[in-house]
Write a structure and sequence with these properties.
Layout: H1 2-5, H2 13-22, H3 27-42, H4 51-77, E1 86-90, H5 94-105, E2 110-114, H6 117-125, E3 129-132, H7 138-143, E4 149-154, H8 159-172, E5 178-180, H9 185-191, H10 195-199, H11 210-218, E6 222-227, H12 234-240, E7 245-251, E8 263-266, E9 280-285, E10 292-293, E11 300-301
Parallel strand pairs: 1-2, 1-4, 2-3, 4-5
Antiparallel strand pairs: 6-9, 7-8, 7-9, 10-11
Length: 308
């Protein structure tokens, strides 16, 4: 019935096939089955009392069967929605854009949001998706890809925008997936910040303030990704990049044949688990750190940096 009723519509054939397979069965029969069964029993129809149990048996079997096969069939037809893998950045200022470009280079989907049109325009010129407006607005519920968002990071220099975003998305997503840059302690006390906002101001550790990130970018700092290995450990990375601001830890590489997202962990205050072997560290490097030593042969070489 679903396949026939959707014939001639703009719905793709693969979507129609999936809908036809998972469409509920027996709803009308379940609603009126008992009425017909009583009438048939009064009329003396043989085995009329078996109609209701038969109807619900068919419903249970089809529900279980369709539940077990819906995802494999959707994946086979290529209509399965991938796991949430987009990082929403609140703010499209130059700091947020630099970080977004770095994540995009590492195949991490990023979406920015800013109520300032000039910031959105600059982001779109950089090839970054940007929502013009407040991400917690009713309009954003219709136009932001909320179903694909797995983490929110408030990077606006306006602490009020950060506070509203953290408070709003902490209810939509798990609170542990929402982060914000730190605001000054004096402002927090004066404005009586919520406990949620105070607890999520942990992004990029003790030194990862908006002012410092902005200063590094203004001086020519760039976002760079480095893989931690047995020869080049996290301790050695810190020794050689003492002035860098670590931003993220990436685990896994994006494979076109696999829809599982790359695991991303932002550096936070009191971070318990340091980067492990095989993981990548994405950091903001100052301009003077343009030449690093190759841990394999001790020769100098240009590091692989993410283009802005």
């Amino acid at each position: 019935c679903i396949a026939i009723s959707t014939y001639g519509t703009e719905l793709p054939i693969k979507s129609r096939l999936v809908l036809a397979w998972i469409a509920p069965r027996g709803i009308v029969a379940a609603a009126v089955g008992s009425v017909f069964a009583l009438s048939m029993m009064e009329a003396g129809v043989a085995d009329a009392e078996k109609i209701v149990p038969l109807i619900f048996t068919v419903i249970i079997i089809t529900v279980v069967l369709q539940s077990l096969t819906a995802i494999p069939i959707a994946k086979l037809l290529g209509v399965r929605q991938p796991s949430p893998n987009t990082i929403l950045l609140i703010g499209a200022n130059h700091v947020a854009r630099a970080i977004a470009r770095g994540l995009k280079e590492q195949n991490i989907p990023v979406y920015l949001s800013d109520p300032a049109w000039e910031n959105c325009r600059m982001a779109r010129m950089d090839g970054l998706a940007c929502y013009y407006g407040n991400p917690q607005s009713e309009h954003a519920e219709r136009y932001l890809p909320l179903t694909t968002i797995r983490s929110v990071m408030a990077l606006s220099p306006n602490r009020h925008h950060n506070a509203l975003g953290v408070q709003y998305f902490s209810h939509l997503l798990n609170e542990k997936n929402v982060f914000s840059l730190r605001s000054s302690t004096s402002h927090a006390k004066a404005n009586k910040d919520s406990a949620t906002f105070l607890s999520r101001q942990i992004l990029f550790g003790d030194n990862g303030s908006y002012a410092r990130l902005s200063s590094l970018i203004a001086k020519g700092g760039k976002v760079s990704a480095t893989r931690i290995s047995e020869e080049f450990s996290w301790e050695k990375y810190q020794e050689m990049n003492g002035d860098a601001i670590p931003l993220f830890i990436l685990n896994g590489d994006k494979d076109s044949d696999d829809d599982s997202p790359v695991k991303l962990r932002p550096f936070t205050i009191n971070m318990e688990k340091p980067p492990q072997q095989g993981e990548r560290v994405v950091a903001m490097l100052p301009p003077k750190m343009s030449v690093l030593k190759d841990p394999n042969n001790g020769k100098s070489k240009e590091p692989k940096e993410i283009k802005e």
